[in-house]
Amino acid sequence: MSQIKIFDTTLRDGEQSPGVNLNQLEKLEIAKQLERFGVDRMEAGFPASSKGDFNAVKTIADTIKDTSVTGLARTVKSDVDVAWEALRGAAEPCLHLFLATSPIHMTYKLKKSPEQVIDTAVEMVSYAKQKFPQVEWSAEDASRSDWKFLAQIIERVIDAGATVINLPDTVGYTTPLEYGNLFKFIKETVPNIHRASLSCHCHNDLGMAVANSLAAVENGATQVEGTINGIGERAGNAALEEFAVALKIRSDHYPYHTNLKLNEIKRTSDLVAKLTGMYVQANKAVIGRNAFAHEAGIHQDGVLKHASTYEIITPEMVGISSNTLFLGKHSGRHAFKDKVKELGYELSDEKLKEAFNLFKLLTDRKKEVTDDDLFTILMEIQTDTSTVEKYQLEMFQVQYGTANIPTATVLLKNPDGETVQTACTGQGSVEALYKTLDSLITEDLHLVDYQLNSVGRGKDALAESHVQLVINGEPMNGRGTAQDVIEASANAFLNAVNRYIVQQKTAKNKQILK
Ligand code: KIV
Ligand code: ZN
Question: Which of 34, 278, 361, 424 is the most exposed place for a label (fewest CB within 10 A)?
Fold first, then answer.
């Protein structure tokens, strides 16, 4: 069984998904979970793309010690320099340099000849190698490139010091047979290929990203790049959890293994879904809500007789527990603390107190508090540590009925500490509420997207809402949880506004300090 390295790009390619916008703390939470999951390398961002990305990559590089951290850079010196500043504190700093090699990209995007592309790639890999012990070079749009040209440029960048060669299927165009053959060709043709490892990076435009990654591995790739839940540009990237479980379940066919802890899949998937607002569809392979549900009578009968009749993956393998009651109304601080630890969280005394209070409030309204509920509470308090003054919901009331006009009344404390109130009507209860909040908030707001989900099942399940707003021209996401759907919706709206305020005030404070 040879080992396949897992390169996670949830925080870079995944974060490029339309509508996703994570703050630094959320990125750090995901990075810590990726480390726990056992990925070999994580791409924390694109440091030269923005100050925010630089700070997030630096924080992750300085914190994560059991996983190699990498950052993306274009083939320009300033990108490499900025990336080095962000990544120099990492346990094993790695730079991910990319340059397109397909005729379409070279002609229309880069406006460079193939010779110029080779020269630029070689120059930048040598430059990066003076700083970084590990340099991965990606031939962007490799799957639509000329194979002989690819072989030529790969040989040159390996001579310049590249330690990993990545052949992305940037637009999700290739097929398993074709992509496998590309890896075989490169392995057989490039004379110095033994001095670097080969990596695959697949997009899912035709729904073949995982199949293409498996084909690459069968033909010499020793590293697989992808994201959690398959999030990413357009139709997304290869879903790492699907790839890893396919290797495990079909080990008779694939003689490879990864370092991933498969029983961390559920938790990693949930964290990414909740923080990005990109919830997985019920029928998604491996982790969807229906992936272990049997509806047809014949199937249910078979599973009762022997699970293997219709179940090839057990829920336990991917970390789905039965999620029964663990703590209730009478549970004390001690039992709570132990459970928090068991879920993998290390909280300060202050945060633990905050979490315990929220838990107690929840037990007043919900009989059975599950791991999922607790995970939602812990995630919320871990990703909100700012002490900046924000909007606080003091009271709201929504009147809704089929015979009256939906009306919301809201009492809000604004960041200046004043209490403001008003009432508005709308076509529905959420619209009335959002119009009222909007009229009390001074920022210019536009609602772009709104989602509502339940945490777990059952009549008393927590409601979880996710919104996308554009605030003063800037996209901002928010999420909120509550027992009631309207309250969760209000919390999500205010969360987006408060994230904007924290971001603005932090940026202002930094300028003053300069
Ligand atoms: O899909 C792609 O080509 C990329 C590169 C930047 C590696 O994400
Ligand atoms: Zn990509």
Answer: 361
As separate numbers, helices (DSSP H) first and strands (DSSP E) second, the chain gives 16, 16
Instruction: Over range 424-434, report the average pLDDT.
Output: 97
456 Rama class: left (phi>0) / alpha (psi -120 to 50) / beta? left
- Is the CB of 137 within 6 Å of ligand 1? no
Rounded Cα–Cα distance for residues 411 and 99 (Å): 53
Q: Tokens at residue 370, please?
A: 């599950």
Our answer on whether the CB atom of 43 is closer than 6 Å to any ligand 1 atom is no
Superfamily of domain 2-276 in CATH is Aldolase class I (3.20.20.70)
Ligand nearest the Cα atom of residue 46: 1
Domain locations along the chain: 2-276, 291-319, 333-382, 392-513
Distance 300 CA to ligand 2 centre (A): 40
Give dist(CA 407, CA 393) in Å, integer.
17
Identify the residue whose C-alpha is closest to ligand 1 atom 2: 170
Which architecture, in CATH terms, is 392-513? 2-Layer Sandwich (3.30)
Ligand 1 and 435: CB distance under 6 A? no
Question: 15-72: per-residue pLDDT in tens?
Answer: 999 889 899 999 999 999 999 999 999 999 999 999 999 999 999 999 999 999 999 9
End-to-end CA distance of the chain: 54
Can you tell me which atom of ligand 1 is nearest the CA of 168? 3
Distance in angstroms (rounded) separating the CA atoms of residues 298 and 256: 35
**Ligand 1 atom closest to Cα of residue 9:** 8
Q: What is the pLDDT of residues 238-267, one digit of tens each?
A: 999 999 999 999 999 999 999 999 999 999
Cβ atoms of 142 and 182 within 8 Å: the answer is yes
Question: Is 203 annotated among the ligand-binding residues?
Answer: yes
306 is in an annotated binding site: no
Q: Is the CB of 170 under 6 A from ligand 1?
A: yes
Cα(250) to centroid(ligand 1), Å:
28
Contact yes or no for 186/150 (Cβ under 8 A): yes
pLDDT digits (tens, 9 = 90+) for 316-330: 999 987 545 567 777
Q: Using an 8 Å Cβ cutoff, are 412 and 437 in contact?
A: yes
What is the Å distance from ligand 2's center to 112 Cα?
A: 21
Q: Is the distance from CB of 176 to CB of 211 less than 8 angstroms?
A: yes
485, containing H or E segment? helix 485-513
Distance, CA of 89 to CA of 198 (rounded, Å) = 26
Walk across the sheet containing 419-425 and list its strands.
392-399, 407-413, 419-425
